[in-house]
Amino acid sequence: MPATFEGFGLKLLYPDNWTLTPRADDEGDQGLTLELPSGGFLSIETLPITRGDDEILSEIDEMLREQYQDFESEEVQLDGADEDERAVDMTFCHLDLVVLSRVVLLDAPQSTRDQMPIAGRLLIQFQAESRDFDANEMVFAALLKQIRDT
C-alpha cells in the first residue's frame, strides 16, 4: 500500500518503505524530503516567482562542484515534460560511489499557487547512488507525473 503526502497544494503517493523526513522549523512547510531505504532522496521545494531557472541551476551546479570530485552536468529532456520544464542530470563521486542527481524545474500547479501565491516553480531533486537511481527511476518518473497532472 503506498503512503500519501499532502501539502502545499500537492497530493502524492509514494512507496511506503520511503521515509518522509521531518523538516526543521527554519525550513518551513513549503517542501518535503523523502528518503529511500538505500540512502537516496527525493526533495521538492517551492520557489518564488522572482527566481529564474538559470540562477537556480547555476547555484546548484556551483555548490556541487565545490563539494565533489569528477562533477559533470548535462541538461536532459524527460519524457512527458512540458516545454518550459528544465531538467539537469549531475553526476559526481562520493566515497568511491558514482552518484546521480537529477534536478527538475517546472511550473507549480495551480493548487500550489492557490495556497501560496508567490510560488512560481517547483524544484524537484532525485538523488541516489547510480545503481539505486536506476532501480528507482520509474518511481521518480511516476512521482513527477503526479505533480505534472495536478
UniProtKB/TrEMBL annotation:
It comes from the Bacteria. This is DUF1795 domain-containing protein. It comes from Rhodopirellula sallentina SM41.
